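Priority: medium. Attachment 1 of 2:
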């Protein structure tokens, strides 16, 4: 017998969750597009080299989490583990020369072979946005403002805080990286193989380690804010003053480095203070200016952020509201289906969805079925008469007229 369970780390998204998903995305889309961002759809499969170059060969994603395979031409392809690289590739291909200033958003499944746990799956949906061509820090604040507005409108069941760090220019980072290496060098012999590799390849990654020994060293570790150039300092102060102007609360966290190598300048995470456990980051982003040079050899400006939809699903109300967008319709006689089709057509012309239940059973069973499927309204054609059942208010309305049925349903929706 075939195993009917989904592959570990992947799951079926059933209708109620899809409804919740759609409600979340409606808010995200409305807010994002109100700031002038436009949707793009990028491929699920990309060249493996794209992610190696952009995400970073030393990152956990490239080292051990990507789903990579060779196709019939022996080309190495990868299921996208994140969306920024693909969106950036599309920008460089289609827009950089003709229309260099772009604000884009995307949505879709991403794939990482991580250990499945609450809020973390191997196939997960991610909303992302990217802004290209803008170097002024106001755009950094705009993206944070968008995320903050989305979370406010969703009315999440958790306190959410924006955490900031500033990685500075390449000049700042070079000096800081040397200081970090010098600080950690006396302790390297006590590191395990994973942290020795991080020390050699990207010492910044030690800052976000969960290892207890590394954590014990971090309280005395040098902070990057002590090495910022005058220009970096001015930019960072401007960003913080703009956040305060928009009344967006934030905390500074020098240990925040993100796991991707393409970040520079401002980086941030929105973290849920309760409700998610260890996997509490629901949004992350920052400056990605380095990506342009990495992928095209030319300098450029870019930034973006991504929101994990599965984690938002855990933080929004899991009780799906009674459906107002559709009406459950049934009859006590199969010969009456023509009348149901007539009602369906009449309601659909008025932008009201209709779910016709094909099958005859007792009235009580039909109403129970409608309630179990979470409908607010059920309409039965019984003994040549229309009966509208309000399953929330436990009321009913009878009429011989389809128009009367529509008027009653419409008044109930209001």
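Attachment 2 of 2:
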């Amino acid at each position: 017998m075939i195993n009917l369970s989904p592959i570990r780390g992947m799951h079926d998204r059933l209708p109620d969750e899809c409804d919740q998903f759609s409600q979340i995305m409606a808010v995200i889309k409305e807010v994002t597009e109100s700031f002038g961002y436009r949707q793009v759809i990028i491929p699920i499969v990309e060249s493996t080299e794209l992610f190696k170059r952009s995400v970073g060969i030393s990152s956990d994603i490239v080292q051990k989490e990507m789903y990579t395979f060779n196709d019939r031409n022996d080309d190495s392809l990868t299921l996208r583990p994140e969306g920024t690289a693909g969106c950036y590739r599309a920008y460089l291909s289609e827009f950089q020369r003709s229309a260099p200033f772009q604000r884009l958003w995307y949505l879709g499944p991403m794939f990482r072979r991580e250990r499945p746990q609450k809020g973390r799956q191997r196939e997960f949906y991610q909303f992302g946005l990217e802004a290209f061509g803008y170097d002024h820090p106001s755009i950094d604040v705009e993206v944070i403002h968008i995320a903050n507005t989305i979370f406010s409108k969703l009315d999440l069941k958790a306190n959410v805080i924006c955490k900031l760090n500033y990685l500075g220019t390449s000049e700042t980072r070079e000096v800081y990286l040397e200081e970090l290496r010098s600080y950690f060098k006396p302790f390297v012999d006590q590191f395990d193989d994973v942290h020795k590799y991080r020390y050699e390849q990207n010492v910044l990654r030690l800052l976000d380690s969960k290892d207890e020994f590394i954590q014990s060293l971090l309280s005395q570790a040098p902070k990057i804010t002590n090495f910022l150039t005058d220009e970096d300092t001015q930019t960072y102060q401007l960003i913080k003053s703009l956040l305060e102007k928009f009344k967006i609360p934030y905390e500074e966290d020098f240990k925040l480095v993100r796991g991707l190598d393409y970040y520079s300048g401002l980086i941030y995470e929105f973290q849920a203070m309760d409700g998610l456990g260890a996997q509490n980051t629901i949004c992350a982003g920052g400056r990605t200016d380095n990506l342009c040079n990495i992928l095209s050899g030319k300098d450029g400006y870019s930034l973006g952020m991504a929101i994990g939809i599965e984690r938002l699903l855990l933080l929004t109300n899991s009780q799906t509201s009674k459906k107002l967008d559709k009406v459950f319709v049934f009859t006590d006689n199969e010969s009456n289906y023509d009348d149901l089709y007539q009602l369906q057509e009449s309601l659909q012309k008025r932008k009201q969805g209709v779910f016709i239940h094909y099958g005859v059973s007792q009235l009580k069973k039909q109403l129970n079925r409608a309630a179990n499927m979470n409908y607010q309204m059920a309409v039965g054609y019984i003994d040549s008469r229309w009966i509208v059942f309000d399953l929330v208010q436990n009321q009913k309305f009878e009429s011989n007229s389809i128009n009367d049925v529509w008027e009653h349903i419409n008044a109930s929706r209001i």
